[in-house]
User: Fold these one by one.
Assistant:
Number 1:
Amino acid sequence: MKTIKTGDTTWENRHETFVENIKDLYELGNEDNLDALDGYNDTTTGLQALIADAIATQTPLRALGSGWSWTQIATVNGGVMMDTKPLNTVFDISAASVSAAYTGSPQYLLFAQSGNGIWELGEHLRARNLSLKTSGASNGQTIAGAIGTGAHGSAFDFGAVQDFVVGLHLIVGPNRHIWLERASAPVVSAAFIQNLQTELVQDDDLFNAVLVSFGSFGIVHGVMVETEDLFLLETYMDRMPYDDSLKTIMQTLDFSNANLPCGTERPYHFSVLLNPYDMANGAYVTTMYKRPYQPNYTPPVDNAAGIGPGDDAACFMGTLTEVVPALIPTLVNKVLGASLTLFNKQFGTLGEIFNNTTLRGKLLSAAVGMPIAYSTQVADLMLSINNTIGPFTGIFSFRFVKGTSATMGFTRFGQTCVMELDAPYSDTTYNYYTQVWQQLENAQIPFTFHWGKVNEVTPTRIANMYGPAATDWIAARNKLLDADTIKIFTNPILQQWGLDTVLP
Ligand SMILES: Cc1cc2nc3c(=O)[nH]c(=O)nc-3n(C[C@H](O)[C@H](O)[C@H](O)COP(=O)(O)OP(=O)(O)OC[C@H]3O[C@@H](n4cnc5c(N)ncnc54)[C@H](O)[C@@H]3O)c2cc1C
């Protein structure tokens, strides 16, 4: 494995919202002179050597994806960060690599090294007439980085990114790496295990714990993903009254009485965006319907502001700047007017619709998950408290996603509504977030924080949000990692969250 020690002693996240002091940043890469499998296995050995060295020198270590998170979860104060993006080999899977007990079809499986970008996987799959099942609104994350925080899209009959992962190759220490999959859903054959020179562990609880684990279970070296046939999304964004009819859909995801662009057809994606300064003209409602792929369509083009159909508010909210409160409504309306163009029957593949990797301006983003039944209570609360704790320099966005089986996935409610609050970087925005979380707690709304976005996670909140699941997660970490390895994969934020416990 190539390890380039950059000598960097500071690291800044992509949003430039914090700078971390580090010992070094290593750029990792596969050796060029080896074939794909030998190169992959050589990198496994290299990653183990880095862990051994970190233990020997008592240096904290952490894998970095694309650096898109707002929380300090990919960083490690005083430690070594490993840039995994160049680790982007992919392997198509043959029948010989698949267990006889696997219930799916090998042609839909893809084994990807952890640094592959979501966009890279999309391009690879498209050439094979396949597609990922979902992605976030933007696709600049690496596959391991996206699952590391439980990144979600808005496919409410499917789930979040980690929900299409069916196997994980995990480096759990200097002398051990494992292939982890669910005992209830075996995937790979003995030949596959032999090819990776690894050890098979089939365990539902361990697998679910590792899925969303913010870099705390060692290094995810590769993931097996289930894909599907390439499809098109038929997409619309309309303005609709925020009335009982829309509220009922938000609370139930029951479309049987819907008056949406394709009538009562159940969409693949449904999201609602509320501009508190222009409610008279209705909510922005995005619906996307899944269609079989056919080549005769016109892919989306960016509008003048560079915003495409699948983009979320994060893509343009950074263009807002802080102004005095009295000017906020005008400013938000002006930016939305320039950036959000309604669209009608626009077609694209998943990768074409959710394609944005461009960040505009310095922004903050927070997101919380809640059961869908609470979505309109929260929306109404947000509109009303905007008059007291606001005005918020942004909009309120609601997306819907099926509950995840990941132990610490924040989309953990059977049907989860994710409210996103994107706004310019400022102390005012941070203060506003603090007050919103307090208001949600005062109203006794059950909610969880997106691990990778601005949040105020505390041990007490984790206990309230996850109950025994958090203890199970800690137990799984202690089962898979020895005490030395746990120590080097512990960073300050994990300690702050109270998830760093070493069990006797
Ligand atoms: C413009 C924009 C839009 C966004 N849209 C969405 C969205 O629609 N939905 C959503 O849910 N989120 C969204 N996010 C948040 C983002 O998806 C998450 O923060 C995601 O985790 C970032 O992925 P990354 O590759 O940048 O990972 P990083 O931020 O670099 O890392 C995330 C975590 O993964 C760990 N990690 C990375 N690689 C490995 C590895 N190989 N082994 C072990 N651990 C690893 C890191 O240590 C860290 O703990 C958005 C962010 C931006 C900037």
Number 2:
Amino acid sequence: MTTQRVLITGGASGLGRALAEAWLARGARVLITDINDERGAETVFALKGRGEIHYQRANTCVAEDWVRLLEWVEENFNGLDVLVNNAGVAAAGRIDRVSMDDWDWIIDINLKGVVQGCRTFTPLFKKQGDGQIINIASLAAVACAPAMSSYNVTKAGVVALSETLRHELAPYGIRVSVVCPSFFQTNLADTMRTPEEGMDSTVRKLLAGGKIDADEVARRILKGAGKNRLMILPHSEGKMLWWMKRYLPPVFNYALGDAGRKLKRKLERNS
Ligand SMILES: NC(=O)c1ccc[n+]([C@@H]2O[C@H](COP(=O)([O-])OP(=O)(O)OC[C@H]3O[C@@H](n4cnc5c(N)ncnc54)[C@H](O)[C@@H]3O)[C@@H](O)[C@H]2O)c1
């Protein structure tokens, strides 16, 4: 097997870091990028004994940073095999509470950041006649829970983008997958924006209660991507919800409606 060259955005923490470890264990050459330089340096220090790992500061919302990353991989890796658009943030709140500034913030990072990654590297992948794009969405794209509209919309957008590119880019030898994980413990809550009282601790509990950890999520992503799956659902509850949405829509919609009623009572108690 040839050595893979892998770029992972948001690779200084959580899932991105776990993916870096998983690829290093397979002998890949890995470039992680992030906006958190301190965590980037820590991650490189912690993982450098496992193989070739590099860090570059790059904000996925900034076009010039993407141009710099393309130049970096051409100079240092002489190409790229896998682009993982992983960097992301979370937001929660009712539609009449979340500000338009917060909508812009999350769309810029979670959706347009992924679009910029795909736009930047597609010409290189076309030139190579080979490449793989793995976009990290969320189970939120499948099961759109109440009071999460901005996050749900960005992740559903990433699924639509990935489905489109899957069929657009396959004739050029480019494989595209999208990952929809349920909750798992990371630092995602630290950057979360919400105007809702009590939402921060609810999300922290959901992350802490994840049934599998980031390392296991990463292992399942590599397995699914290795099989060139379009939709990768690392959690068993994610697979079940996806199945229910397609084959038992009344049950699926009842469950989400029930969640909406419970949330209304809870938020009213908190305010
Ligand atoms: N943790 C979960 O339960 C969960 C569930 C479903 C999907 N996800 C998705 O997994 C991905 C990784 O998140 P995580 O849970 O590991 O969180 P995390 O906060 O631990 O890691 C995200 C990383 O992205 C970086 N980042 C944020 N904005 C950036 C930007 N504009 N440019 C570059 N880097 C940026 C952060 O600095 C951080 O290091 C996200 O897309 C998230 O939406 C997470």
Number 3:
Amino acid sequence: MNSARDPRIAIVGAGLGGLTCARVLERHGSSVTVFEREASADARPQGGTLDLHADTGQAALRAAGLLDRFHALSRPEGEEWRVLDFATAALLAHQGPSADGGRPEIDRGRLRGLLLDSLPEGAVRWDRAVTGVAPLADGTCRLLFGDGTAEDFDLVVGADGAWSRVRPALSPAVPGYTGVTFVETGFDHCDTRHPDLARLVGNGSMLAKGAGKSLVAQRNGNGHIRAYIALRAPEDWQVASGIDLGDQQAVRTHLLRMFDGWDESLRYILRNSDSGFVNRSLFVLPAPHTWEHVPGVTLLGDAAHLMPPVGLGANLAMLDGADLAHALVAEPSVDDAVRAYESIMLPRSIEAATGSARGLDRLVPATAC
Ligand SMILES: Cc1cc2nc3c(=O)[nH]c(=O)nc-3n(C[C@H](O)[C@H](O)[C@H](O)COP(=O)(O)OP(=O)(O)OC[C@H]3O[C@@H](n4cnc5c(N)ncnc54)[C@H](O)[C@@H]3O)c2cc1C
């Protein structure tokens, strides 16, 4: 089949990329089904704050007809960045919000909610974990579900993130560990409960870095500060150190030892956080990651180009989603649309992956800078 006239389109994954694609398609009168493995929209907290760039994330929201609502929800003052000296906490560099509000911050949960609310009832089918896809000889694609059922589509879009179950239909690549782990923790009601830290972080983000380790703290909405203790360390650093991540005191003691010599105002992050510690080992797909075109299936976002989290991944996932949707609306067939989309998305992501790898090296330098 594979015709662009009312094609059967499945998007796997209700993350920012998949939802943007669905919204832009719906806006142009194409119906689409999003299959999401989680049981509901609020099955888990969605994570921290994101800055949306004018030429990527914001461009995608414009295509989705949601840019004005985004601006109403976002925090332009959150664009502020401070770099502090690790030993003295002296301000080394400061960037205020740009005059034109170029990269406003928004909590990921709010952004996802904005996209979800824009879709018709039933567009997202929750609790539908995909286990794999099988491209068929006629150019369509079979979607296989965890409950043993299957459905056929003219196009399956893998928007299912780092550990995509759709990707193996296109590429044998698997993500590899970068050598960097973010240990996440958080502070509630920061202005009243943690005023000194709130002042240190300001309205946006704060970074201090030493050899092989950094501290990043970001103001989220609702007075929350989310902090990442970034370590160049084996993926199972806590196992090697004999530490149970659930034992907060043991983690604090270990981290305080690791950050010996750092200013006490920064060590406050290790000593006094309200929440426990969550390991976020950073994985990336090999770069360049590309594939030979296969009819009936494609990828977007992290499924296509998982890269270090230095501020691009969500922006690119959303732009991918908007670009793919536009191609599906504009091109004469699904196959033409996917080819047109991949010819833009793949080179763009290769360039971004190279830049992001350098960004991670700057964020967590291997040696003292
Ligand atoms: C600590 C951290 C900080 C970050 N900060 C930023 C930032 O500031 N700016 C930025 O641009 N990016 C940032 N990123 C990167 C960003 O989070 C990702 O690039 C972005 O979320 C990718 O979006 P996506 O839609 O491709 O995938 P995801 O957001 O991962 O969404 C995938 C969806 O697919 C679902 N799914 C997965 N498997 C299946 C399956 N088998 N069946 C059905 N559904 C499935 C998942 O449940 C999920 O809902 C950060 C990442 C991390 C880890």
